[in-house]
Amino acid sequence: MNSPDFTLDKIKFGTDKRMLQKAFELYEGGKVTQVKEGVRSYRGIVIGTQPYNVSVEARRYDYADCTCYLGKNDEFCKHMVALAIYVVKNGEPLTDEDKKIYHSPTCSGKIGELGTDELREIKKTISYGMRYIKPYHGLSRLWFSYQNSLAEGCNRLAKVVSELPVSKQAADLLVSVMLRLDKKLTNGRVDDSDGVVGGCIEELVEVTFEYVKIEPKCLKAVEKLRNQNTCFGWEEPLVGLLERKNNSYT
Apex CA 81: angle with CA 164 and CA 30, to 5°? Predict the structure, then answer.
């Protein structure tokens, strides 16, 4: 079977967490059957409440069809995702790493420093994730795919952040990411009506608090947030913590 244009990471970052987990269950439960390759496409039978005929295009895993209720109403479904997973894994078992889902940034809890090469690659990965958080041009037919793009960008950033070792160096990265996201919201014509990007910033604020608890030196990174005019004042709790800390020394 020829490899599709999409990857497992693309599926994981671009799919709702609940749907992705259900698709993993279908795949691991052997419910994806009779998979055949067509012309730049794949089709198979996915066993749900009943057997469903499912097809996925090779260029994009979300260009798909299914005979289930959702599929008949032109909605994306877990059966499509399960088939897409089968295609990229070629029927092989999922590893523990494959099944890790990063839809919210978390603190790794591990203190450490990044090497020069590691830091460079992480910055590249962050910039790549930022590309998905782009301006909205107002075409109503693109609304849902646009929101999915914002979610995918935030999910990619969540993975990077969740794997960072705790340090002042990493805290500087977090602050930089938050400011870049804020700039996209205030000046970049990003339509965050669903609150995906704003929610990501708030979660990064929480991760920064965790950093400070583990390594107090991380608080120095917050200095960059002083006198910032952000879109919804997300920096205020961090700046307040910094000021309280400084006042305790006077």
Answer: 105
Q: Are 6 and 60 in contact (CB under 8 A)?
A: yes
Would you give the distance in Å from CA 155 to the centre of its chain? Answer: 1
Q: Which pLDDT tens digit goes with each residue over 127-162?
A: 999 999 999 887 666 778 888 999 999 999 999 999
Distance CA 103, CA 162 (A): 10
pLDDT over 70 at 249, yes or no:
no
The answer to whether 160 and 129 are in contact (CB under 8 A) is yes
Amino acid at 180: R
Q: Return the amino acid letter for 121.
A: E
CA 175 vs CA 5, 107, 168, 212: distances in Å: 34, 14, 10, 13
Q: Are 149 and 132 in contact (CB under 8 A)?
A: yes
Rounded to an integer, what distance in angstroms lies between the CA atom of residue 43 and that of residue 201?
39
Nearest-angstrom CA–CA distance, 84 and 59: 11
> What are the tokens at 243?
């000021």
Whether the pLDDT of residue 26 is over 60: the answer is yes
pTM: 0.89
Scanning the structure block, which residue is given the tokens 């795919």? 145
User: What pLDDT is stored for residue 137 in this prediction?
Assistant: 80
Residue 248's pLDDT is 66
- 85-110 residue pLDDT tens: 999 999 999 999 999 999 999 999 99
Residues in the chain: 250
